[in-house]
Amino acid sequence: MHASSSSSWRATLAGxxxxxxxxxxxxxxxxxxxxxxxxxxxxxxxxxxxxxxxNLAGYLAGAVLARGMARRMGAxxxxxxxxxxxxxxxxxxxxxxxxxxxxxxxxxxxxxxxVLMVLAAPTVLPRVPPSRRGLAGGVIFMGVxxxxxxxxxxxxxxxxxxxxxTWLGLGAMAALLTLASWSSWPREGVHETTTSPHAxxxxxxxxxxxxxxxxxxxxxxxxxxxxxxxxVAHGLGLGLHAGAAYWVMxxxxxxxxxxxxxxxxxxxxxxxxxxxxFLIEAxxxxxPALGLxxxxxxxxxxxxxxxxPGIVPLALGRVHELLPHHAEDQKAAWSAATTSFAVLQATAxxxxxxxxxxxxxxxxxxxxxxxxxxxxxxxxxxxxxxxxAGRRFPVT
Length: 396
Known about the structure:
This protein is mostly helical and 396 residues long.
């Protein structure tokens, strides 16, 4: 059962608002704020790093608990509540009351982001015709890209007015998006029919392959997400302004990536599009380690930026592809995939930070590790596809 075109697009735009508030603003706006927080002596550098980790820990907790919240209070109510929590977290961070205060609100913002990532798109997409779900998923997750783009453009402008004004400005933006999307969420109880003979979630080996590949993809994204600006500014000696310029390129890529990957998947299928994404990402992540000059670094920044949110609609679409007409299993599988992504992302972030601190500040190894993870994701998917073909499973 699909809603009218106008209501499905209203719900899709509400999904965009959720990903923008929960991930785009609540997480990525912190990246350019970090140096300013340290310079303003709100917190020491070591403490500020833990505040960044608090968001990742909250994201993991939110991803794990999201489905339980949806069962108790309904998905739409849980989404609205988490958008309010993310908004309050941004407003609360305008006051550096104490480390515990800041840590708690950064954790809360991450928790909200994890819940929104698990619930928003699966709540919207059943209302969208299958032929347009790739594009609709791209629009929803474009909110992450918009947040990254704003973190490189709007946040530096707000910082001219001070840290407090910047946090309040971000909170006001999140409040407006929350209010604008409040009545656009689909009502509960609309599910697709469950008449398909396809294998459900349990025992579906191709789902486990997807979890592994999606998690390894998170590992591959970490070098650019955490080290790109510092690599350009200090590793290449080009300075902070150049580092910020490459972060803007990363944001431009993030802005267009979900739409491009969603559009591609609508034409090729999500399985082939996901494999192509792993291949392109492996090359793009490796480029900074090869020392091929600034043009190659620009290409790498834009492409990896594009796939940072662009991989999400591909993974979600792949879940729907593997579990057609099993709405509840799709939600459970997407929750598991998001948890896999969150666990390996947090593990890789801490692991690479530890490696960087103990290898003499050698950046290239970080990008080599990231590219290796992407190649491994592709290899696992291809081997599983060949093995599936050998057992006469459809290879999609």
